[in-house]
Design goal:
The structure holds three protein chains of three kinds. Chain A is α+β, with helices and mostly antiparallel strands. Chain A has three domains: 7-109, Acyl-CoA dehydrogenase/oxidase, N-terminal domain (Butyryl-Coa Dehydrogenase, subunit A, domain 1), CATH 1.10.540; 120-228, Butyryl-CoA Dehydrogenase, subunit A, domain 2 (Beta Barrel), CATH 2.40.110; 230-376, Butyryl-CoA Dehydrogenase, subunit A, domain 3 (Up-down Bundle), CATH 1.20.140. Chain A has helices at residues 7-23, 25-34, 42-47, 66-79, 82-100, 103-114, 228-265, 277-305, 311-335, 347-357, 364-376; strands spanning 119-123, 139-143, 146-157, 162-170, 178-184, 190-195, 206-217, 221-222, 267-268, 271-272. In chain A, the strands form three sheets. A four-stranded mixed β-sheet of chain A has the order 1-4-5-8. In chain A, helix 1 (7-23) packs parallel to helix 4, helix 7 packs parallel to helix 9 (311-335) and helix 8 packs antiparallel against helix 9 (311-335). The longest helix of chain A is centred in the middle third of the chain and has 38 residues, at 228-265. Chain A starts with 6 loop residues before the first helix and ends with a helix. Chain B is elongated and about 65 Å long. Chain B has two domains: 9-183, HUPs (Rossmann fold, 3-Layer(aba) Sandwich), CATH 3.40.50; 210-329, TPP-binding domain (Rossmann fold), CATH 3.40.50.1220. Chain B has a seven-stranded parallel β-sheet, with helices on both faces. In chain B, strands 15-14-16-17-18 form a five-stranded parallel β-sheet. Helix content of chain B is 23%, strand content 27%. By secondary structure, chain B is of the alpha/beta class. By secondary structure, chain C is of the alpha/beta class. Chain C has one domain: HUPs (Rossmann fold, 3-Layer(aba) Sandwich), CATH 3.40.50.620. Helices cover 28% and strands 25% of the residues of chain C. Chain C has seven helices and eleven strands. Chain C has a five-stranded mixed β-sheet. In chain C, strands 1-2-3-9 form a four-stranded parallel β-sheet, sandwiched between helices. In chain C, helix 4 (79-93) packs across helix 5. Classes of the chains: A alpha+beta, B alpha/beta, C alpha/beta. Chains in contact: A-B, A-C, B-C. Strand 10 of chain B pairs antiparallel with strand 10 (209-214) of chain C, so a sheet runs across the interface.
């Protein structure tokens, strides 16, 4: 078992880190204020190969795989977690099309998703059910050469900044009644609705998609009729949860750095508070969370790259890491004392960001249901 | 080829720009004069250019025993190879024991190539020079790391060479005995320059500039980010002074390299120096001379700077400096004392 | 046209090793010349071989190949000995048009090495270059700026050019660059591979020696003000006023 990162992985970390440190901070205040995704960053993200990190090279991506994706999202999240939040959902859209798409679909959509023209969306959640994937109410009815889709999707990341959506809709009844479609924003009847105003991960756009007699050419059926449940679940579990785990991991990096920095600078009783054992114990807890998170997230990425079963591992990574991020961010706020609750200090934003990761991509409760099955098997 | 005289020689490369000797030349001549106090030593100034007899006159009483002049139209502009050929020839003919250059762009370039051509040692950016009875030069430099000084010697190779930044040594008095002016061979084989100069533009000396400033506020690594630099400038401005930087802010890209104060940067002589977030590495401190009051603001009570200044404020500059600026801006209640 | 570029990095073991910042600018400048005019960029560095992973970044930044000069016998060399080794390597690698370096390194900052390399290679050099291009007739057109002023010069290759940070903004290394760097040549040379005498390199090849290190005389400690930041600031402001420093 080799726990070291390869030379390639380390170079990749360095290169994304440098990009993140320069390109993200100037945009962060505005993101925090407006809640808007900085579209001018797309070009840089494309050039860096970040948008296409799991897209095969022949479709315009960098094709580096899932562990690389974790490393990339971690480095971005260390600076600004809202960015990898947006990206991880974008990658879900890519994953869906790359895994179940026909050659024509891949050729048509994957390059556009890699080269910065647009972010992608993976739309499953509805007002009637998020965790309850089987409760989907959006319908898709075949009419001539098109499917006609009707329904609303909510809590969709990138809803207002994306032209390419993978949408789950019911073509029939029950588990085999769901199908996935590739919907372009410009298709007649496709639209966006409400924009959510979130407590954290501001700068990741979250909102509604509205489908009113939306005509989708039947060539855009993704993965075959009735296969939608597999497309949805596998994408969410494998790609989505590993992605969310990476966002949480990025937050933990930032949390530790801010906590250590403050503890070393803040002088009380004539010395930095980092000399006080209570503070040291907090730091040790945060450090432990970070190290464990790394192992969980990297393992999930590695399993996916090696095409080994990863459902439980990805679910565990997501659930555990996002909880840890929230818990450690809270400790970091406390280390900051009164300064922790001031907006001019980043640590409060990290706590808010961490809180938002907890329910995203699957609540902790659902995760535990999945894991208990694994535990009992 | 002249025979080696029995005397020992210290030579200063008398860099001139448009006929005016560089300030560092006077500083080095003064230092050389001190080093050459023992009998048997001669201080020489090596002057290269075109139509430089007037320049030689300006060097007459500045500490040299002799001024060696190479005058040739081909030496009008420094073009690398042209000066190198003449200096090389002069050094081989006269075999000085020590050759000193100002650590200016020209000085460093010329000294480096010359040392390589002569296969001898060159100590860079020295902050002091010592000469013993055996004619061995020791060059003092700040050691990488910032807390120590190193003494560098060149035991077996000659000449012993060193570069010194402008402002490190003081300009001495100008009433030394007159120097003898000697003409030396300034001939060039063909056009021995390395490159053609298409266009030249001298830098304007701004009046508010660092070297002339009465008050200098230096920002260091502790400033933390480019966005915070404005505080340094504001404090400098309120005090009627100029802002400078140590090396880390330059390396981080927060400020331009020409603000750097230190061993291989600029030397300042302010009445008041305030270091903000400056740790106090020797590389920087050697660039600050002759102050009346040196103040340091640093979060770390263990920072070296507190051993090298008069007044120390331990704390976060982001709280102290704004309060200081506000206090300075306040009109004084009840008039001045 | 073959372009060689050297990094002359001086890396010490006790600090996290990075490519000397100015060398990134030099590498970027070389790569841009190659993109415009063709040629091959070689990144050259003298360093212990455990730093190889760090130096591979130069391949990701566009160098076509990396040459590492690694030998315990190089250690302890002053600028003359270092320049001698690098020049020997450049000569060994064959003909070149241009050697580009950063003006100086951040740790020892002598700024002497590039000029000395040029002397050993018997080619011209210019320092403090903040713009470098190739004119239509194949000559180099360079702009140099230093404390005394600026000048534009024209010179013929081969040449050694050392650059300032103002010359360009190095590009980011993209994920594709990281991948592409993996196929590129890495050559490791020791003293035995180069036309060098042992007496020219390392400590033996260094005319200068460190006689000793010593601590400077420390004055006694500063008078430390006490109180809150605001209180300290008030005391200082008062002192400055009394000394006549308020508003110049």
């Amino acid at each position: 078992m080799d726990f070291t990162l390869s030379e390639r992985d380390r170079m990749l970390q360095k290169s994304i880190r440098e990009f993140a440190e320069k390109e993200l901070p100037p945009r962060m205040d505005r993101m925090e204020e407006t809640g808007e995704f900085p579209l001018d960053l797309l070009e840089g993200l494309a050039k860096m190969g970040i948008l296409g990190v799991i897209t095969p090279r022949e479709y315009g991506g960098s094709g580096l795989g899932h562990l690389a994706r974790v490393l990339v999202l971690e480095q971005l999240g260390r600076i600004c977690p809202a960015i990898p939040m947006s990206l991880e959902v974008h990658h879900m859209c890519v994953y869906g099309i790359n895994t179940w798409g026909t050659e024509e679909q891949k050729k048509k959509y994957l390059p556009a998703l890699a080269d910065g023209k647009t972010l992608g969306v993976f739309a499953v959640t509805e007002p009637g059910g998020g965790s309850d994937v089987g409760g989907t109410q959006t319908t898709a009815r075949l009419d001539g050469n098109d499917y006609v889709l009707n329904g609303r999707k909510c809590f969709i990341t990138n809803a207002h900044v994306s032209d390419i959506w993978v949408v789950a809709a019911m073509t029939g009844e029950g588990r085999k009644g769901m199908s996935a479609f590739i919907v372009e924003k410009d298709f007649p009847g496709a639209g966006t609705g409400h924009v959510e105003d979130k407590l954290g991960l501001r700068g990741a756009n979250t909102g509604e998609l509205v489908l009113q007699d939306c005509r989708v050419p039947k060539e855009n059926l993704l993965g075959g009729e009735g296969n939608g449940m597999s497309v949805a679940l596998e994408t969410i579990v494998k790609c989505g949860r590993t992605g969310m785990a990476s966002v949480g991991l990025g937050i933990l990096n930032a949390v530790l750095e801010e906590a250590v920095k403050f503890a070393n600078e803040r002088v009380l009783y004539g010395k930095p508070i980092s000399r006080l054992q209570a503070i040291q114990f907090y730091l040790s807890d945060i450090y432990s969370d970070l190290e464990i998170a790394r192992l969980l997230a990297y393992r999930a990425g590695w399993l996916l790259d090696n095409e080994l079963p990863a459902d439980a591992e990805a679910t565990l990574a997501k659930q555990w890491i996002c909880e840890a991020a929230a818990r450690s961010a809270r400790k970091a706020v406390e280390i900051h004392g009164s300064y922790g609750i001031l907006k001019e200090y980043p640590v409060q934003r990290l706590l808010r960001d961490a809180l938002v990761t907890v329910p995203a991509g699957g609540t902790a409760e659902i995760a535990k249901v999945v894991l208990s099955r694994q535990a009992m098997s | 080829m002249a025979n080696r005289q029995p005397e020992s020689r210290i030579w200063i490369f008398a860099e001139q720009r448009s006929g005016q000797p560089a300030d560092v030349v006077f500083e080095l001549l003064g230092k050389a004069r001190l080093l050459a106090a023992a009998p048997g030593w001669k201080v020489g100034a090596l002057l290269i250019g075109h139509n430089v007899s007037g320049t030689a006159a300006l060097l007459e009483n500045r500490g040299a025993d002799e001024i060696l002049v190479a005058d040739n139209p081909g030496l009008e502009d420094y073009r690398g190879g042209n000066y190198l050929a003449v200096v090389d020839r002069a050094v081989r003919n006269y075999q000085p024991d020590v050759v000193l250059f100002g650590a200016t762009a020209m000085g460093v370039d010329l000294a480096s190539r010359l040392a390589a051509r002569l296969r001898t040692g060159l100590s860079a950016h020295c902050i002091d020079l010592e000469l013993n009875e055996k004619g061995e030069l020791a060059a003092v430099i700040p050691w990488p790391g910032g807390d120590f000084l190193g003494r560098i010697v060149c035991p077996r190779h000659r000449p012993q060479m060193a570069t010194v930044s402008p402002g490190i040594f003081d300009v001495p008095r100008s009433d030394f005995p007159e120097a003898e002016v000697l003409t030396i061979d300034g001939a060039l084989n063909s056009d021995r320059g390395f490159y053609r100069i298409l266009e030249k533009k001298p830098e304007e000396r701004k009046p508010g500039d660092l070297e002339n400033a009465r008050v200098v506020v230096v920002g260091g690594y502790g400033i933390g980010a480019r966005e915070n630099w404005a505080l340094v400038e504001e404090l400098a401005s309120v005090l009627g002074g100029v802002a400078g930087a140590t090396r880390p802010p330059v390396d981080e890209g927060w400020v331009n390299a020409d603000l750097m104060v230190g061993q291989s940067g600029r030397t300042v002589h302010p009445r008041l120096y305030i270091g903000v977030g400056v740790s106090g590495h020797l590389h920087h401190l050697v660039g600050v001379k002759g102050t009346e009051l040196k103040v340091a603001v640093n979060q770390d009570t263990r920072a070296a700077i507190f051993d090298h200044c008069d007044l120390g404020l331990a704390g976060d500059y982001r709280e102290i400096i704004p309060a200081l600026i506000a206090a300075l801006k306040e009109p004084r209640a009840g008039g001045d004392l | 046209m073959t372009i060689d570029r050297e990094t002359g990095t001086m890396i010490r073991r006790d600090v996290p090793s990075v490519i000397n910042p100015l060398d990134r600018h030099a590498l970027e400048a070389s790569v841009r010349i190659r993109e415009r005019h063709g040629g091959r960029v070689t990144a050259l560095s003298m360093a212990p071989d455990d730093v190889l992973p760090v130096l591979k970044e130069s391949l990701a930044r566009g160098a076509d190949r990396l040459v590492l000069l690694s030998d315990r016998r190089f250690a302890g060399g002053d600028t003359l000995a270092t320049a001698c080794v690098i020049a020997a390597a450049v000569g060994h690698l064959g003909t070149f048009d241009l050697v580009m370096c950063g003006d100086e390194t951040t740790d020892s900052g002598t700024a002497q090495v590039s000029a000395q390399i040029a002397e050993f290679l018997d080619v011209p050099n210019i320092m403090h270059v903040d713009d470098c291009g190739v004119s239509p007739d194949g000559d180099l057109r360079l702009h140099s700026r230093n404390e005394e002023g600026a000048f534009t010069a024209e010179g013929q290759t081969p040449m050694v050019v050392s650059v300032t940070a103002d010359i360009n903004e190095p590009r980011y290394v993209t994920l594709m660059d990281v991948l592409d760097s993996e196929g590129k040549e890495v050559l490791i040379l020791s003293a035995d591979d180069l036309p060098l005498e042992e007496s020219w390199i390392g400590l033996e090849g260094s005319p200068t020696r460190v006689l000793e290190l010593f601590e400077p005389e420390r004055k006694s400690r500063a008078e430390m003000l006490s109180g809150t930041p605001a209180e300290q600031a008030a005391v200082l402001a008062d002192r400055l006023r009394r000394l006549g420093f308020r508003n110049g």
